[in-house]
Amino acid sequence: MVKKSTNRDARYISVDIYDQKKSKYVHAGYIMMTKSLEAGAGFSYAKNYNGPSLDPSQLPIKQGVSRTKSAEGNNSLHNIFKESLPGTWAAKNIKAVFPEFEQKNDAEKLFFLGSRRVNGLQFKCYDSVDKPSYLRGEELLKQIAYDAKIFEVGDKDGNHPLYLSEDAGTYHPIINTSGDAPKANYERESMGGEYTRTLAKFSMPYQPFSRKVEAAVGKMSKDAGIDTPDSYWIAGKENDGDEILIVDKFDQGNGGPRHKISLTSLMSAEGGVDMSDVANAVRRYSAKPEEDVKQLFKRSILSASVNITANSLDNFEMMIDDNNEYRLAPNYGLSPNHMPDAFVVSMVGMGSKRMAGFMSPQHIDRMSEQFGINEAEGRVMAKDVLSVVSQANSYLKNQEVSHSNRKGLLNIINKDQIDKTIDGLTKLSSLDAKKSRHYNNQDTPSP
Predict the structure, then answer these.
(1) Which CATH number is 200's domain given?
(2) From its phi and psi, is residue 255 left (phi > 0), alpha (psi between -120 and 50) or beta?
(3) 257: in domain
(4) pLDDT single digits (tens) 170-179
(5) pLDDT given for residue 226 in this prediction
(6) How much of the chain exceeds pLDDT 70, in percent?
(7) I need a labelling partner for 136 at 20 to 30 A (CA). Which of 80, 176, 241, 399 fits?
(8) What distances in angstroms separate CA 26 from CA 45, 51, 115, 122, 200, one per listed residue?
(9) Do residues 447 and 429 lie in contact, with contact meaning Cβ atoms separated by under 8 Å?
(10) Are residues 126 and 195 located together in one domain of the fold?
(11) Distance (Å, rounded) from C-alpha 206 to C-alpha 10?
(12) Taking a C-beta distance cutoff of 8 angstroms, is the pair 54, 28 a contact?
């Protein structure tokens, strides 16, 4: 139990993390609700905690209270805890039921949502130090989803293949509070009676491309050698069969969820947003930095060539592995932007310059330099990714993407430019191979 202090109110949030080595939740520490406008919300690790850092950038493991200050003043949160707050869409639905939610500061919002699990963290909210009691929690989110009837999942025949295992006979998903679009967490029964945890992403009225397009780009990403979760689409019952994207959840480990943190949070303490800074952050925190930087490089090529502006630093995450060490998480959030001149501000190393049409062997070489990758190796990886992107029309047809959506995305991709770049990279790689053979022959002693 946390001791009282003159600067704390009676409320606090206990934080657990799922330890992949121990295959269970362990107590990590406490978020302190404070009275002082200057102090901000503090976090303190538990005295005997020996698990992974919740945030290696802002919250390295140490004794004592770590505080954060921001323009929000009282009870502002560390970034890793802000990531557990609802995204735009979920917040809108919560405010519809609880209008007072909008007026609360970050720590109060986290407290209001109550005891629940978010990714690899488990929050236990107590309204009194002397008499602890759980507040709200996941049942609140279930009830909001049920009352609002916001999830009508199933095929046109009325079947509901998605459900929660603990309530298998009924249709009752848990609302997923992340991001700007409607989402829900499900479990899907597979052959052999096993369950696969999935995320359902619903369509939005303003969505430029269908979920079929996102499924196609996901397959492209996987075939390009990028670590990407499996996904597929189903037709929903509502809105004349708008597609729903079903993505296998990749953040499940040894019996429980893996803790993860976005590069947005990690980079806030690093400063800078160009690719050399991002690559350096991955190198600093990854247990296998060279492998992860190469994955980051390939993902950046894909984002640039397909104009995936939504795939920003928020969707690039570090996630703990089976040894409680941080690795780059798989690729997701692969919905392209429909505007040909959209700015890809993050993850492409070109600042605010429009990427579509700017892809060239020279640009690939500059990106390799920014990532700290060997120039010849960068050319090979870029060629592998672009060779898949060049076949985008086939991927889109395989996912039954409409003619208008296919035409829109293919206009953005600029296949002629990509094919020229592939040809240029092929010639450069041939020269690289000749140079390598020349140097190897020079190093070989005469008989």
Answers:
(1) 3.30.200
(2) left
(3) no
(4) 334 555 666 6
(5) 97
(6) 68
(7) 80
(8) 12, 8, 15, 9, 29
(9) no
(10) no
(11) 44
(12) yes
Q: How many residues does the chain have?
A: 447
Q: Higher pLDDT residue, 71 or 281?
A: 281
What does residue 213 show for φ and ψ, rounded to 5 degrees?
Answer: -65, -45
Listed residues 118, 136, 154: the one ending a domain: 136
The answer to whether 223 and 199 have CB atoms below 8 angstroms apart is no
Number of independent structural domains in the chain: 3
Percent of the chain with pLDDT strictly greater than 90: 30
In a domain, residue 328? The reply is yes
- 256-263 average pLDDT score: 90
- pLDDT number for residue 357: 44
Closest by CA to 321, choosing from 230, 225, 257, is: 257
In angstroms, the CA 231 to CA 248 distance is 6
| Max CA distance (Å), the chain | 85
How does pLDDT run across 145-158, given as a tens digit for each residue?
Answer: 555 444 444 444 44
Q: Taking a C-beta distance cutoff of 8 angstroms, is the pair 26, 54 a contact?
A: no
359 and 423 in a single domain? The answer is: yes
Q: Are residues 180 and 98 in the same domain?
A: no
Verify that 153 and 273 share a domain, yes or no: no
